[in-house]
Specification:
Number of helices: 9
CATH architecture of the largest domain: Orthogonal Bundle
Strand content: under 5%
Order of helices and strands: HHHHHHHHH
Structural class: mainly alpha
Distance between the termini: 95 Å
Radius of gyration: 23 Å
Amino acid sequence: MASRAEQKARTRNALINSWLRIIGGGANFASVSLREVAKTAGVVPTSFYRHFGDMDELGLAVIDQLGLDLRRMMRGSFETDESLDDVIHHSVDAYQQYVLDNADLVLFVDQARTGGAASLRAAIGDELEFFSTRIAGALREVVPGLKPADRDTVAQLILAALLNNTTTLLALPSNSDTRRDELKDELVRKMQVIMLGAVQLSATKPPVRKRATRARGSAK
């Protein structure tokens, strides 16, 4: 017999997974009702309120899960004993596979990032900012000579490329294997260009500013 805590956790997960399945089926998250989620999960609507105060709270729980997943993905993504090209390929493979394996969750976040309630947009913004900060931290090992401000800029460029790839990837039909491979190659190329710029930037010394000299014979 499952304990009360185990049963509660199962019901909570069932509600989350049901909501994500509905979104994955083509519904916009903002149009999904509490009753529809409860019915799909096989529970009565009143049971929903034992786990979430409202639909936005359910959305925040999903965003928390995405944050945990991104943290796990970052661990070991940047190995300093690998070549930079290998790091790029492995990171792109891991990221794109995560999107494909968790398409419903990522689709919700992609929708809510621009069209969700203020609380959802803020939570997603916080997670993406943290992700960007972790990328910047990893760049300290991969491109040691990069200044902190430049690391932040490069991390933001990487994040922008990932988000753009995600939106396009999610819009593909399920039978688009060739196009998915093309998107992966395109993302790898973008990362290579970004990282090439980072390496060049790390090797560039700031120009020495010469002190202006007063022209001979000028007024004092």
